[in-house]
Every structure is written in C-alpha cells, then in structure tokens.
C-alpha cells in the first residue's frame, strides 16, 4: 500500500520466486527438495522482536513437528539464557547438548543463517560470521525437511548448492569395482567437485569392496585443503605405511576437478588438468587391486576407466609376494 503526497512511476519486485507451497508460518515444516548432501547450503532469513526468548531451526528426518521426527541438527539460539545450543534428537531422546556463550544475533533485528553441509559436519554462519560447527550424528542422507519454531518471523527459506550425483552408486563414501585387474597401461578417471570449505577427500585403489579400514589399500591419494598438500600412502596389515606428501596442492576447495590415475610398471602417476601432480611407487602387488573407493569432502559425477585388453586371473592372496612397506 502506498499513500500520501507522491507520484508513482514504477513498482516492481526482483529476485527468485518462492515456491508456491512454501510455508513461512511459525511453527512450520518444509520439504527440502533433493535432500541434504555435502555442498548443500540451507538459507534462513528472518527477524526477531525485542520480546523474543528463543527459536530453533531443525533439519529433520520427516514432516512432523517435534517430537514426531528424528532431528539431525537442532540449531537453537536462546536469548533468555544468552547461549547458543546445538543438538540432535533420535529414538525419542536428545543427544549430548553442545553450548556456547552468547547469541549470534541481536533481539529485534534481522538475520541471515546459512547452514553448510560437509561430509563430516555442519557449519553455520550468521550474518556472514561463522558461529559453530556440529558433527553428524544422523546420516545427512536421511534429512528430508526443515522445521522452524519459536519467537521469530521468516522472510525466506531457500536451498542452494551443487546438485547431488545422479548415479546413486557415486554417493560418497562408495566403492565401485574395476572390471578386470590393475596392470601397467591402465587408467582411472575421477571427475567431481568439492564443497566450499571442504577439508579433505581421498581416492583409494584397494583390494576389495568394503570401506576403510576393512580392506587393504594399494594407493591412497588424498588432497588436504586444510594443509595445502597431497598425502600419498598405502594401507596393509591394518596399518598405514610411510606417508608421502606432495605440494603445494594445485586445487582449492569449492573447485571442480578431473583426476587421471595412470598405472605404470613401478608406480602410479596422477594428473590434474593434464599436469602431473604426484607419483607413488607400488608397495602392494597391483594385480590385487579390485575397487576404487572415494571418501571425504567431495561429490563425484563421473568415474570410469579403460577396458582391459587382457583380463587377469584371480588376484594373488595377501600373502603371495607382497611388497613390504614401512609399518
């Protein structure tokens, strides 16, 4: 409504449209389209009044109001006690409460909350400042809805970030088989991206389908954004070998990547954007490699390899001529 001594030339509205069925009432639950996965960001914009005591934003595993669903992440600013509370709720019980002093917004003012999903944890920013982290206690893949309740008003709830892999077999962590066995001349290509703020991920060439630490790993290639380098190693007899580091890391978190791993007679070589970034001498017989496993802060869109010209026989057992690494 416009009134008074004024002439109007134009009234317009710019910005993304809200979903027609989005419920911005309090309390409310809304479906999260596509779910939660590493790289996803949940945005909540709203405000509080001077009389506000507390409110909560819950990422939960269904549409019912509390206590009807498990809650993977409970974000709860409490003005009345001047603390910020984080928790999860599963099996009709709250977990161990995490608290910090102070509330990251002022009563009576507007706020913007950004919840970033990483592989191991959530990170939360309020008005551009990081205020907390919360490790996953419930798998993020089970989260379907966002629920908001308490003393606040909501202007916007939105979800941004990269789309999850289309192939359900490539949801990290995963292990996929390599047709034939590894031998000199073969290559493996891994294409994906990392979420902004991701700390590390690993591509492992291993000797079976199970996730770490249940298989021996002939070659572990692990970019470490938090250290700025690449860590190379093998895992045998339930122990990691001697760690080799290469650097600086020619990749930043939040960037897409396409790695090629080439197998040579005596080593693996890894290329990024057609540039070699590292080389790793074989420590386990390469014929024992049967699977590629990816773990950590990464989303994988494509994983493929060349077709073997000469299929190999069964891989040797773990005791047949294994090259000993330093344990």
From TrEMBL:
GO terms for molecular function: carbohydrate binding; galactoside binding. Keywords: Lectin, Repeat. Residues 28-160, 174-306 form the Galectin domain. Coiled coil: none annotated. InterPro entries: ConA-like_dom_sf (IPR013320), Galectin-like (IPR044156), Galectin_CRD (IPR001079). Pfam families: Gal-bind_lectin. PROSITE patterns: GALECTIN (PS51304). This is Galectin.
